[in-house]
């Protein structure tokens, strides 16, 4: 073994890099070695559904238009060809009748017939048929074509009979004379010359029609592709990109004013709404995680506060005795809310434990917790005596407190107010439901927020509030089989309506 062979056996062999055409062929044979972009380009694809259908429809429609043009053109060509033979035969008949006794030698007759391209000429006048130029006997009976009275169907069908008819087919054609008197002039002509000329005419017409159809169809397809398909592809790409990554930058809609432009703008608007909804959900998830972390400590704090309130119950101070029930109710509701707060983080509220209760009592307790006082924002009650509702006491309390506290804070935050505000609560029973209206004389809700007031994290105050109060209240009302809605808002005040089962 030579030294070179020994080295080759010790060292691992390495294939040489192929370049040029061989490398490209190797890449095609092994597409997994290519980058993803090139693999995508080299992968064969079926034509786009809408584009291919549009192209097929364009071709079909242009061919149909070409057929509609060719069929009557063939009928007109055959009729012109026959009329030319008739006129030539008519002129020949005038020459024959100019001879003494209309006597024509056989050679002259043959020459006249060849000039006119006919085999026989007959003139009919006053019911008498006169044979002016006669040809030899024919192997087949000729087919009559009367140009004086023909329907549209026969005119359109005759050219195709000529094209696909028997080679020995002859035509006996009649028409009204133009250059002489008489009832009709009739010629006998072979169909083969007409067939050859008709084939040539149809071939030229078909070529020209196909050229026009291809140009017109191509222009139509290009126009539709530019005006319709390209924008639809852009919309499709925008939807696919949004589905893959909703936070990806939105594609700017075009400034078109047609249906495509409206679709692009509506799509951009809906995508932005979905982004906002996803962000709200993300904030809710983050809120739930944060509440889960502090929930344990909060419950311990509330337990300590409840123990302290129990010690205060033994105090003889009248002020403590007066405030203690309110403190105990607040601590009890806070503890219950802490126990159920994680369920709200899962977008679920506990089912209401309904009981019949006096609405006036529930409003009075909620007004205390909402901070309504005689020397501040006052509560005015206009409630029927003994009016009851069928509701969960804790959940109804949360709804009323949210509405009254929001109204009080809106009134107190109005810098232009000079007098104390008031909140009026009215109620009436109708159709098995109790409609409770909470009206304030505050500055009203900004117009930009009125339509989105019940969405999560939408608040009318920039410095305080999480924007969840009305969202929670509406959900609680819906769980009761009722509803909460904004009835009216203006610079003179705002009215909410809460509907609950009576």
Describe the structure concisely.
The protein is α+β, with helices and mostly antiparallel strands.
Q: What is the topological layout?
A:
Layout (H helix, E strand, L loop, with lengths): L2 H8 L9 H10 L6 H7 L6 H50 L7 H11 L3 E6 L2 E6 L9 E4 L5 H13 L5 E6 L8 E7 H54 L14 H54 L5 H28 L9 E4 H11 L8 E5 L5 E4 L1 H20 L9 E9 L2 E8 L6 H4 L18 H11 L3 E8 L2 E9 L1
Parallel strand pairs: 3-4, 7-9
Antiparallel strand pairs: 1-2, 1-5, 4-5, 6-8, 9-10, 10-12, 11-12
How would you explain this protein's 3D organization?
The chain has 502 residues and is α+β, with helices and mostly antiparallel strands. The chain folds into four domains: 3-42, no CATH class; 50-210, no CATH class; 245-348; 354-501, Heat Shock Protein 90 (2-Layer Sandwich), CATH 3.30.565.10. Helix content is 56%, strand content 15%. It is built from 13 helices and twelve strands. It has helices at 3-10, 20-29, 36-42, 49-98, 106-116, 152-164, 191-244, 259-312, 318-345, 359-369, 393-412, 447-450, 469-479; strands at 120-125, 128-133, 143-146, 170-175, 184-190, 355-358, 378-382, 388-391, 422-430, 433-440, 483-490, 493-501. The strands form three sheets. A five-stranded mixed β-sheet has the order 2-1-5-4-3. The chain has a five-stranded mixed β-sheet with strand order 7-9-10-12-11, covered by helices on one side. The longest helix is centred in the middle third of the chain and has 54 residues, at 191-244. It is rod-shaped and about 155 Å long.
């Amino acid at each position: 073994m030579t030294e070179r062979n020994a080295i080759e056996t010790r060292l691992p062999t390495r294939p040489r890099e192929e370049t040029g055409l061989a490398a490209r062929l190797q890449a095609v044979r092994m597409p997994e070695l290519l980058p993803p972009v090139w693999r995508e380009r080299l992968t064969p694809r079926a034509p786009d559904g809408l584009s291919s259908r549009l192209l097929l429809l364009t071709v079909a429609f242009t061919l149909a238009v070409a057929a509609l043009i060719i069929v009557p053109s063939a009928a007109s060509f055959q009729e012109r060809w026959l009329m030319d033979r008739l006129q030539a035969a008519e002129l020949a008949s005038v020459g024959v009748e100019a001879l003494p006794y209309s006597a024509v030698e056989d050679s002259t007759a043959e020459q006249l017939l060849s000039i006119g391209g006919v085999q026989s000429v007959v003139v009919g006048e006053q019911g008498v048929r006169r044979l002016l130029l006669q040809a030899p006997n024919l192997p087949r009976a000729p087919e009559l074509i009367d140009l004086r009275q023909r329907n549209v169907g026969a005119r359109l069908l005759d050219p195709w009979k000529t094209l696909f008819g028997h080679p020995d087919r002859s035509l006996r054609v009649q028409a009204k004379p133009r250059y002489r008197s008489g009832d009709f002039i009739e010629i006998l002509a072979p169909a083969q010359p007409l067939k050859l000329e008709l084939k040539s005419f149809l071939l030229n017409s078909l070529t020209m029609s196909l050229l026009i159809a291809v140009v017109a169809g191509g222009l139509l397809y290009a126009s539709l592709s530019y005006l319709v398909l390209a924008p639809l592809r852009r919309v499709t790409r925008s939807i696919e990109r949004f589905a893959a990554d909703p936070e990806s930058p939105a594609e700017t809609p075009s400034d078109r004013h047609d249906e495509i432009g409206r679709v692009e703008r509506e799509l951009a608007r809906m995508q932005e709404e979905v982004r906002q909804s996803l962000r709200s959900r993300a904030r809710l998830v983050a809120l739930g995680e944060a509440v889960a972390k502090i929930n344990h400590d909060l419950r311990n704090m509330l337990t300590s506060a409840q123990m302290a309130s129990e010690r205060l119950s033994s105090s003889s101070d009248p002020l403590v005795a007066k405030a203690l029930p309110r403190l105990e109710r607040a601590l009890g509701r806070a503890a219950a809310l802490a126990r159920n707060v994680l369920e709200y983080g899962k977008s679920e509220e506990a089912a209401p434990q309904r009981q019949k209760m006096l609405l006036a009592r529930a409003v009075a307790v909620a007004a205390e917790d909402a901070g309504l006082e005689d020397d501040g924002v006052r509560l005015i009650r206009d409630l029927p005596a003994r009016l009851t509702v069928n509701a969960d006491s804790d959940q109804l309390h949360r709804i009323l407190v949210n509405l009254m506290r929001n109204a009080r804070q809106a009134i107190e935050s109005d810098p232009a107010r000079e007098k104390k505000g008031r909140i009026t609560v009215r109620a009436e029973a109708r159709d098995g439901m109790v409609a409770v209206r909470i009206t304030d004389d505050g500055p009203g809700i900004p117009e930009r927020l009125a339509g989105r007031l019940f969405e999560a994290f939408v608040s009318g105050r920039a410095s305080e509030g999480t924007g969840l109060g009305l969202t929670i209240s509406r959900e609680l009302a819906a769980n009761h089989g009722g509803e909460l809605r904004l009835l009216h808002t203006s610079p003179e005040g705002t009215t909410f309506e809460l509907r609950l089962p009576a």
